[in-house]
Hints:
By secondary structure, the chain is an all-alpha fold. It has a single domain, classed as MFS general substrate transporter like domains (Growth Hormone, Chain: A), CATH 1.20.1250.20. It contains 17 helices and no strands. The protein has helices spanning 3-12, 20-34, 39-53, 57-85, 87-105, 111-126, 128-140, 145-171, 176-191, 193-197, 237-241, 244-273, 278-305, 308-327, 332-361, 366-395, 399-417. Helix 2 runs parallel beside helix 8 (145-171). The two termini are 24 Å apart.
Amino acid sequence: MTPNIRIAHFLASRLPFYYGWVIVGCAMCGAYVKQGGAVGTLSVFVSPMTEELGWSRTDISGAVSLGGILAALSAPMVGTLADRRGSGFILVASALLLGAAALFLSLTETLIWFYAAFCIARMTFAGPFDIGTTSVVAKWFVHSRARAMSYVNVVSSVSLATMPIIAHAAMQGSDWRAGWIAIAAVVLTIGVLPNLVLMVRQPEDIGMLPDRAAAPPQTSGGNAAAPLPPAAPEFTRKQALRTPALWLIMGYTAMIFPVQAGISLHQVPHLIQRGLSPLVAVSAVSLFAIISAVASLGFGYFDRRVSSRMGLFVAAVFMSASAVILIGVTEAWHAYASMLLFGAGIGGIMTLTPVILADYFGRNNYGAIRGIALPVQVLFQATGPLVAGALYDWKGVYTYSLVLFAGCGLLAAVLILFTRPPRLPDIPHTAGTER
């Protein structure tokens, strides 16, 4: 028995609540520190780094895209690893890598150095952190899955609001290098210890069941006296890939995540270019992150009252409308209105995209299925900043990329409307964890 299993056994028998909520707390720590590699955090560094080092916006955006490609390539392996070894190992390793990358970013002098460091940061953000935090919540919860996932996403949104502020504050009286050092300190302080000590792969490892404080008493024959709570059919990775639902969900992510990443990275320079002050621009970024946190809670309850599918539809419409407002932004309230819609949309897609996969395909092979779906999300997410940066360098404005993003959001909304839960009886079933 490993030390973290012994600690979990000790705590679970003494806590007045389900140990799964401790797991959610660990996932929250991972969700908080992962934003050190987010494009929203990088957006604070775009102007000072390009001015000092003489790079273009396309140069910066390319690192985001390359890091996303590395995350996509590693995701299938990381997903399978999450099913086999659990999220603790993945989240601890990711925090160490991200903290080291941020420290190396503070030493940047050349574009190659920047690419090497930020690609590692972006890879951990877009791949291992995502799979680690969502997999463990999907495995520990069924009925309360959307609510638990929304709590994790709230912390992620709070981090997206505070990480740029932390970096910006550290840069005052110094330079952008101090901002990266501050990010590294936060990541290493919060991201390692809780997941190293308290994280457990799944409730069965300590004699519990999803959503339950303890497993039912055992009968004399060694079989559980009561079944697991009702849950989705358990698909293997191969079975999931044969369903239209998985491909439509991946199509949705392919359309909506370029909008999320493209606007997130370029929103500050766009608002400044449109005549708004840097303070208004940075505060607008913080506003959308705060709204995203609040919206995550709302979408967490929306899932059980309506459906994750309709929640994702609403989120896509919000993000499309946000891009339309940004096209003509000239005053502070325009920026705030756009970021309100943008934040609400992000809250929906971040909370419900992992939830719909677990609801439709089950928990046993969630990591493997997420590891196949995530590369599509990450690869198309990587195109958003690159396309926006290239169009800016070509035309000198962000208008063209924002029109494109508005159209992508509407197309995503249409795709998710056609998505329906798959039926396992139509497909030969193979029990066990996907290898």
